[in-house]
UniProtKB/TrEMBL annotation:
Protein name (database record): Condensin complex subunit 1
Condensin complex subunit 1 C-terminal domain mapped to chain residues: 944-1106
Lineage, top ranks: Eukaryota, Viridiplantae, Chlorophyta, core chlorophytes, Trebouxiophyceae
Subcellular localization, as worded in the UniProt entry: Nucleus
Region (Disordered): 490-541, 1179-1299
Organism: Auxenochlorella protothecoides (Green microalga)
Key words, A-Z: Cell cycle, Cell division, DNA condensation, Mitosis, Nucleus
Molecular function in Gene Ontology: histone binding
Any one GO BP annotation for this protein: mitotic chromosome condensation
Length: 1299
């Protein structure tokens, strides 16, 4: 009896078995057998499968035993399961050979054919049955595995499970391999005339799809190929294309690992069977899904894998079957309007791959119609990429830029699109997404590396060559502008199918769009240019006096030069954008690396403006991210020291590059250069030959620089400054490599220059090198100061400027030296203080005990700190050689006659004064009054006042407790008439406040006024300050929330501030309140302001703040108020009832209630709003009945504001500042009240004596008095003010730099 595959396996032994074909006659039940008996039966049957005739599988006895064993398959061990499947697969392979021979033999009868059919069905059925059971077991193991792992030891159990899984994974490939081989048999001949059974084909399909469903099995390329062969044969040979395609579509839509294997399957099916119908059916099935379904998957939790898998499949298929996908690309483009950004990104990526691979000319004899169709398809995809760069999703915009990059790398980007794509990339540098910005940098670098215009891209050379050749073209063809080769157009704006609302979200400039002239498709240069014109225009080409080539060649050259000029100019215009990216506070490591890499490429191609932008990249050497710092140092090494392939620098060239970098550098750039040179030395990037070249340059320049009449004096002075600067950095980084002769040369060149500007530039590096190398730098500096003072006394005072400079710089250098020695001593103590083998925990316990006893490393640290303080005090102490000079500086700065004289002398003296103040606390305290007086003196130059404002910031960092009493004076420069003074003061205060070096309470309103400063730069800095301040939340409370009442009070009392400015400031600040809880509390406090104030102006201001509320609905930039806030507003009605007589206040409350009505969703809220409206109306009626003036409140009369101000000024007399808890109305605003905040309280004595504010100022703060410097007693032990002899200096210091 012939075996027929049942629908379900139990039909073989259940009721009705045997009615249609071979079935079980003897049921073998092994469920109750022992494991040994099972193993024995399995071994016997497996051996028979290997050993006996494959046709014997349908013998009744063996068939019954095999069915019984397969039913007991879950009870077998993993090894026996694998052997059983392998035995069946081996038997099926043998059967395939027998069947092929039988079909080829003409002697085969019908009975023999039926026996082969029956055996084939049985083998395939048993294999599929075993695979189904194995899959069920694997799913069960996966479900129970976490519990088993928790019950057992993690390590061994995990390895056991993984090992078993790895061994059993061979079952599927083995079964599929045998099935694939059996399909090589002509089943049409075997199953003639009806064809293969449906159930047999389903079993084949189950085996193949089961393998593709397993990620582990799909890693085996051979197994995937076998599964693909099975499915391809079923679809293309046995008419199951629709079901196979549906299965593949389902597989792609549910399994993330499937896109690659399925794409390989479809590629192999096209190659082996010569038919693309299966691939077309799969593409059509995926494209037929509603875009809304993909959008739902994109947003649904747990279903994103489906749309991601489909997206990856389109990319994989575009890489494997580009021409087939190009024929169906219209089906995909319809999904560009869908909301699934993952799918849009994949379609864009696939379009880029199609442009690379699907539109090559394959036939040299291609017809004109085919060429036009091919070019139209290509142009359409180019337009898609141009449009999608403005997609709403940053992922799609990034994919679009990556697609352009692929076209540039493979040289498939049309030349006419080159400049336009460059414009697109430049525009994306301003994109709001860092992903897009990084991809734009990569695209620009790729365009530069693969540009067809030449290895050098200076705009000037291209423009000159273009003008020359264009003039020649005008002579030969005056009407060339109308020629077909000038058909390239650039169109800006939002052409194409962009989505609504995307313009405001993408954050960049619009990208231009290239279109050809109608009917031309793409716009190539002349099709057959001569060899000379095939060379793209390079910067070295010069137009000939008379053109000797053809007109077509000249037109091609002009078109190429136009594109090259535009490309070079666009790259030059990119440099400022790169500088902005590098200066961004949010620059990431990846973005910084990409920017630096692009700068390096621009340098190699000679792009205009790259040198200045490279300087802007140097501050990245201070980045806290090691990856950014490393990339910057490596790029700088290539740019200035080593060079790159094909352009390696000699030591002389490297020295020149570094000196050019130091020449005309700003102070910030010099600081960056110092850190960069230290990195070079630490990483051995700076070779000894380069350092020797710098010494040689210094030696050559020292002579001519001292003689103004010498030839090349200016060049020598410039080289002297640069070499001295660089060598001082090298010496500070590696002082052990400097000889005594080099030190003499350094000091002689630095302190002996005759040129004033050269002296100032060289003296600083010389002093730094002196303190790094000389065993007694204090003695050398003292001698130089005596010499300069003697020259100044004997001359006309012109040497006082250098004297002051050297004095201030030497004092700071000595302070840095002391601090460095203290750090070095602390590191030594840390290294020897812990016994070998002591654990960190034990060390911490020992430290606690030592701290209590006053011994050990804690005591050593305290002693070391005391020595450091004493050494710092000796710098300007009585015994110091700098002390008499410090008194001279103080006298000069107090002398009005000298300060009103030479501006240079005034600047030198004041800068020296602030440097000495930074060194010594007593000296600083004695001269703070002078410093603040000069800062307020409009007779002092704005530039010098700006410098003093910065110096105050440095002093506040150095002596924060000393400057705390002068906080109010530090805010005064914000009101200066000069823009630079206000800007510097704002930057200093922002730095101090944001770094918690200054209390923000009390004077923050003056910073808020900067939000309406007439200077845009100052407004931007103020906005940045409040933006950063809002981030410094404490226990979930924003500092701005706590400061708003104080700001409101101070701004309302500021008579200089107009109403519009007040409203603009408060609107900006209220936008930083994001939480309903804070908004509700703020409403209550604003209502309290109505009760506490009698000023009509303040009523209006408070009412305006309330109108900025967003009731019930969160709106960006508005104060959020919940239903609870509305209830507080209603409960506080008595506080503002009397103010409702004012029309402006009443209108404000009406606006609030109108917002509440529109957003009220609950019935009780609506009732609350209606009740509040009724109470307000009743209050208005009562006031009307009483005949009160509705324009005036209960206490506010029509007295002018001047009278109110005078009254307030009268109340201020007799007040003094004490330390307390501040305004009691602000207590609830503080999340953590700051003790010691200033509070104004009446001074009884002043009130009795009638002493006013002006009298107090005259009594305690008026006039300037020359005070002698305080003398100090005591000698430092251990660390001396005089530097140690022969001690290595690490160059680091915690002392802030003075600018």
């Amino acid at each position: 009896m012939e075996f027929i595959i049942p629908t379900e396996a139990k039909e073989l032994w259940g009721e009705g078995a045997g009615t249609t074909g071979l079935s079980v006659s003897r049921v073998v039940d092994l469920s109750g057998a022992s494991q040994g008996e099972l193993e024995e039966v399995a071994e016997r049957i497996t051996f028979q499968l290997y050993d006996r005739d494959p046709l014997g599988v349908v013998d009744q006895a063996f068939f019954d035993d095999l069915v019984g064993l397969v039913r007991a398959f879950p009870l077998l061990s993993e090894s026996r399961r694998g052997l059983l499947v392998d035995g069946l697969a081996s038997s099926l392979t043998c059967l395939t050979s027998w069947t092929d021979r039988a079909l080829a033999s003409r002697e085969q009868d019908a009975a023999g054919t039926a026996q082969h059919r029956s055996a084939l069905r049985a083998h395939v059925f048993f294999l599929s049955w075993l695979v189904r059971q194995w899959l069920s077991l694997r799913e069960g193991d996966a479900a129970s595995q976490p519990a088993a792992l928790q019950a057992a030891k993690p390590g061994p159990r995990k390895r056991t499970v993984e090992g078993a899984a790895a061994g059993s994974e061979a079952i599927l490939p083995t079964a599929v391999k045998a099935a694939a081989a059996s399909l090589n048999t002509d089943l049409w001949a075997l199953f003639r005339p009806a064809g293969p059974d449906e159930q047999l084909l389903l079993c084949y399909s189950l085996l193949a799809t089961s393998l593709l469903d397993r990620p582990a099995a799909c890693r085996d390329g051979v197994a995937v190929g076998n599964a693909g062969h099975v499915l391809s044969a079923l679809a293309l040979k046995y008419g199951r294309e629709e079901s196979v395609a549906a299965g593949l579509v389902e597989l792609i839509s549910t399994r993330e690992h499937s896109p690659g294997p399925v794409a390989d399957l479809l590629r192999d099916s096209v190659a082996k069977w010569g038919s693309a119908s299966l691939a077309s059916a799969v593409v059509g099935g995926l494209a037929a899904v509603d875009p809304a379904e993909y959008a739902r998957q994109q947003s649904a939790t747990g279903e994103k894998a489906g749309v991601r898998s489909v997206a990856v499949f389109f990319e994989e298929l575009a890489a494997r079957l580009p021409k087939l996908l190009a024929r169906h690309v219209s089906l995909l483009l319809s999904h560009l309007g869908g909301a699934a950004h993952t799918l849009r990104s994949s379609i864009v990526t696939a379009s880029g791959l199609l442009l690379q691979r699907a539109f090559e000319r394959e036939d040299e004899e291609e017809s004109a119609t085919a060429t036009a169709a091919r070019l139209r398809g290509k142009q359409h995809l180019l337009d898609v990429l141009t449009q999608r760069v403005r997609d709403t999703s940053s992922y799609t915009r990034r994919a679009c830029l990556a697609a352009w990059q692929g076209l540039a790398e493979t040289r498939t980007l049309p030349l006419g699109h080159w400049a336009a794509v460059t414009d697109i990339a430049v525009g994306r540098l301003e994109d709001k997404s860092s992903l897009v910005r990084r991809e734009a940098l990569r695209l620009l670098q790729c365009l530069l590396l693969h540009n067809p215009f030449g290895p050098a891209l200076p705009v000037g050379a291209f423009a000159a060559s273009l003008a020359s050749h264009r003039a020649a073209l005008e002579v030969l063809a005056p009407d060339h502008a109308e020629d077909e080769f000038q058909g390239l157009k650039l169109e800006g704006g939002r052409d194409g199918a962009t989505e609504p609302g995307q313009e405001g979200e993408q954050g960049g400039a619009e990208a231009p769009r290239i279109k050809p002239e109608p009917g031309t498709g793409e716009v190539p240069l002349p099709s057959q240019p001569a060899p000379s014109s095939q060379r793209r225009a390079s910067a070295s080409e010069v137009a000939p006096a008379a053109w000797e080539g053809s007109l077509e060649e000249l037109k091609a050259l002009v078109a190429s030069l136009e594109l090259a000029t535009r490309f070079a100019r666009t790259l030059a215009h990119t440099m400022p954008l790169l500088a902005q990216l590098l200066a961004s506070a949010s620059v990431s490591d990846v973005q910084a690396r990409e920017t630096v890499a692009f700068l390096l490429t621009c340098k190699q191609f000679g792009v205009d403006g790259v040198e200045a932008t490279t300087r802007r990249a140097l501050p990245l050497v201070f980045s806290r991210d090691p990856a950014i710092r490393t990339r910057l140092v490596e790029a700088a090494d290539q740019l200035f020291v080593t060079g790159w392939a094909g352009n390696l620098f000699t030591p002389a060239a490297a020295a020149r590059n570094l000196m050019d970098l130091a020449s005309d550098a700003t102070l910030g750039e010099l600081s960056s250069l110092a850190a960069l040179v230290k990195e070079f030395v630490d990483r051995d990037f700076l070779s000894p030959a380069v350092v020797l070249e710098l010494w040689a340059t210094l030696d050559r320049a020292s002579g001519p620089s001292k003689n103004p009449a010498a030839q090349g004096h200016e060049t020598a002075v410039r080289h002297l400054r640069s070499a001295l600067t660089l060598l001082s950095y090298v010496v500070a980084a590696a002082p052990e490599g400097v000889t005594s002769g080099q030190l003499d040369l350094l000091l002689g060149a630095g302190l002996g220059s005759a040129d004033a500007l050269a002296w100032y530039c060289a003296a600083g590096p010389a002093v730094d090198a002196l303190f790094a190398l000389h065993p007694e730098p204090g003695r050398v500096v003292a001698a130089a100061l005596r010499a300069l003072s003697s020259r100044a006394a004997a001359g006309d005072g012109r040497d006082l400027g250098p004297f002051f400079f050297l004095l201030g710089h030497a004092a700071l250098a000595q302070l840095v030296y002391v601090d460095g020695q203290a750090k070095r001593a602390r590191r030594v103590l840390a290294g020897v203080g812990r016994p070998a083998g002591q654990a960190k925990g034990q060390e911490a316990d020992a430290e606690d005990i030592n701290a209590e006893l006053g011994v050990g490393s804690v005591a050593a640290d305290a002693e070391l700190e005391g020595q450091r303080e004493r050494a710092e005090a000796e710098i300007l102490g009585p015994a110091s050689p700098l002390a008499p000079h410090a008194r001279l500086v103080s006298a000069v700065c107090h002398s009005r006659a000298l300060l009103t004289g030479d501006p240079g002398l005034r600047a030198s003296a004041l800068l020296c004064l602030v440097k000495l103040m930074a060194v010594d606390g007593a000296f600083c305290s004695a001269h703070l009054q002078l410093l603040f007086t000069l800062l307020q003196n409009r007779g002092v130059e704005p530039g010098l006042r700006s410098t003093l404002a910065v110096a105050l910031g440095d002093l506040a960092l150095r002596f924060p407790n000393m400057l705390e009493g002068w906080t109010e004076r530090m805010y005064r420069p914000l009101q200066d008439a000069d823009t630079m003074v206000r800007k510097n003061a704002l930057m200093v205060l922002s730095h101090l406040i944001l770094n918690d070096m200054m209390k923000v309470k009390g004077h923050i309103a003056q910073l808020a006024v900067c939000l309406v400063d007439p200077e845009p730069r100052i407004r931007a800095l103020a906005e940045l300050f409040f933006h950063e301040l809002a981030k410094k939340e404490v226990k979930g409370t924003s500092p701005i929330y706590n400061l708003l009442p104080d700001i409101l009070s101070n701004l309302s009392a500021d008579s200089r501030l107009g109403k519009a400015d007040f409203q603009s400031i408060m609107q900006a600040l209220l936008g930083y309140i994001k939480k309903d809880k804070q908004g509700d509390a703020l409403v209550e406090k604003l209502c309290q302001r109505f009760a506490a104030s009698e000023s009509l102006t303040q009523w209006h201001n408070v009412a305006f703040c309330l109108t900025q509320a967003s009731v019930g609905v969160a709106v960006e930039g508005l104060l959020p108020i919940s239903d609870k806030g509305l209830r507080r507003l209603s409960e506080s009605f008595k506080m503002y009832r009397r103010t409702l007589g004012d029309a402006e206040v009443a209108a404000a409350f009406a606006s609030i209630l109108a917002k509440a009505k529109r957003s009220a969703a609950k019935g009780d809220v609506k009732a609350l709003v209606e009740e509040l409206e009724a109470r307000m109306a009743q209050a208005a009626e009562e006031r009307a009945e009483q005949g009160e003036d509705p324009a005036a409140g209960d206490a506010v009369k029509s007295e002018p504001c001047e009278a109110a101000v005078s009254s307030l000024a009268g109340q201020m007399d007799g007040l003094k500042v004490e330390t307390g808890q501040g305004d009691p109305t602000l207590d609830e605003d503080r999340s953590s009240p700051t003790p010691g905040a200033p509070t104004i309280k009446p001074d009884p004595e002043a009130a009795q004596e009638g002493v006013g504010v002006q009298d107090l100022v005259a009594k305690f703060g008026g006039g300037l008095t020359l005070r002698p410097s305080r003398s100090r007693q005591g000698n430092a032990e251990g660390i001396k003010a005089q530097p140690f002899a022969n001690v290595e200096e690490d160059g680091s210091s915690s002392i802030p730099a003075l600018h």
